[in-house]
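Ticket closed. Logging final result for SsDNA binding protein-like protein.
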Amino acid sequence: MFAARTFRAAAPIATRAFSTTPRAAIARMSIVGRLGVAPEEVTISNDRTLVRYVIGTSHGKGEAEKTSWFRVANFPTSEKQRDFLMSLPKGSLLYVDADARMETYTDAEGNKKSNLSLIATKTDVLSRPRNESVGVNDEGLVQEASG
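Final structure:
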């Protein structure tokens, strides 16, 4: 009448790993936006250089559109990387991954201020700005402007 049934123990759903070292606090930010001005190279201590640039992102529509500007620092690991960053023209569309942290300081008037510090870990160029002297015809071919 009754068939004998066999029951199996369920496999554990998930196990949690524990570590004796504390987890590092990390804040990251990803930005897709246009380069506001051409990058600038700055020499800091010990002849180390960094490349600074500003990225603008827009949100909203029509008259309610607002632009947020983010200052980014990049520490190039090679001359080739530095030269590439320095060659980016204003208006280039960039994707930037950055480590982010808030820094607090006191200005010259004694007021406490905060600043978002972004250090780029990855920078990709999504597109370069269109050159106004170069046109594209209906077939998508680039044509030099005559003048």
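The chain has one domain: 28-130. No further action required.
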